[in-house]
Amino acid sequence: MSRSLCPREQEVVDALLPTGQLAETPELQQHVAGCESCRELQGVMTMLRPDQARVEDTSLPSSGQIWWRSAVRARMEAARTAARPVGWAQGATAASLFGILCAATVLAWPFMQRVFDAAAGRLSAGLDTSALQSLPMMAAIQGSLPLAVGAVTVIVIAPLVVLYFALAGDD
Fold first, then answer.
1. What ranges in the chain are assigned the alpha helix state H?
2. What pLDDT score does 135 carry?
3. How confident is the model at residue 138 (pLDDT cuts 50, 70, 90)?
């Protein structure tokens, strides 16, 4: 669908821009009344007039400021992209250290149990500990201390490590 352009459209635009109304030119008003293209142009410009007033009040930043912001944004995105592998390496290192700590605890447990037993013997010298020995909970704690240490590590330290890595990326 092709629309025929009126040669006087620019004249109608120039007349409507300052006030939104056709100036006191009866000849131009008669032309707009008889020309479908110019009448449509007048209707569109009348509808867009409130938006024009809003746009005139808006101040745009300078081109230098826009360029500077885009350069800063590009640098930040490049730094974030470059830091991503470092974050993965830190996570792998933390997981490896956690595994080594758990393995060392399991391997050193027989020695630590002897040390704990000797320390408990010295601390309980002269005390009647027969009541404590008869408690089933004490036997369970004595037999499962590595499990308790591992559980405490998982429950306390692992969330802190996860929280650190989650918040480290929000610089």
1. 9-16, 26-34, 36-56, 63-123, 130-133, 136-143, 145-152, 158-168
2. 56
3. low
8 Å CB contact between 109 and 145:
yes
pTM above 0.70, yes or no: no
**Which tokens go with 97?**
């250290």
CA distance 59 to 68: 18
For tokens 């620019």, name the residue.
10
Angle of the 9-16 helix axis to the 36-56 helix axis, nearest 10: 40
- Residue-wise pLDDT for 71-108, tens only, equals 999 999 999 888 888 878 887 888 888 888 888 887 88
- What single-letter DSSP state applies at residue 1? -
Closest CA to 49 of 26, 25, 18: 18
